[in-house]
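User: Here's a chain of 346 residues. Predict its fold as tokens.
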Amino acid sequence: MAKHRPTIRDVARKAGLSLSTVSLVINNRGYVSRETRETVLHVVRELSYHPTRSARGLASKTSGNIGFILSEDHFSQAEPFYTRIFLGTEFEARIHNYYILLTTVGSQFDADASVPRFLLERNVDGIIIAGRVNEKLIAYIDGLDIPIVLVDYELKRVRHSSVLIDNWHGGVVAVEHLIGLGHRKVAFIGGDIRHPSLSTRYEAYLHVMQEAGNYPDESLQIVDEEETSVEAGYSAAQRLFASGAQPSAIFAANDAMAIGCIRLMRSRGIRIPADVAIVGFDDIDVSPHIDPPLTTVRVFKEEMGKVAVQRMVDAISAKTQTLVTTHVPVELVVRGSTVAVGGADD
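Assistant: Prediction complete.
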């Protein structure tokens, strides 16, 4: 005998609510109190109820899908920063009964050849874009009248809801940590400086150094690497030391570049942190496990994905997009790659 497949009537009966109220929750439509929504979603999980996507689409005129767009460059990097953001969207989407459809795009955009398939088929109710993509793609999506939420990126000229890292505070606490340890010649290495997150970290570095009376000369600033990979960090560090600069500490734009910098310094017999201390940014998975473990600024990546979905669901439900910018807090994680001046003998 076939097992009974739970229906929306079963959910309503067990929750003690009307069919219309349960339908509003499942289809993310109208106003339902938080308590009622949680009751319905609890029963949905308890009964393992799965609404038929085609039926849901007919009833709500929605697909039940949210698109997630990421550039190929970000997706191919060894450090899984944006993968963690994607996981955050996936977990949160389940709560709201949405599917996340992931696709990657190239650095160039051609409306005749490089439009993601789910946009051509109009099979998504909204788009989450993580990191920097070609602005022509964003303009194309705007023309489709589909809500957009940007993650770790913002556009000054065109307003969209954004979920951002508190890059300013992160950069400030990173450099203040080094100055507090007695470092005066603090270098900065970075790349892809057009990215708002990275340029803000660089600006925070300059601000703190100037406030401390240690405004650095240009030989302590390498900001023109094209990307922020381990290889770019190695290259930046190579150029830094070749210039004759003798920093006692380095603030790297992200952990990947910090790791590349560490590799270069080890190859030259530079002791870390006895000779040069180093701080990264992001707290990627490998950072606690390198030698020495990397002091860094922790970014709550899954939380960023979670908030992005919440903003998207609100926009879809309201059928209008209230523009909201959310800065997700960061925290400094002190490990073995930093030490007070004269405080280590590696």
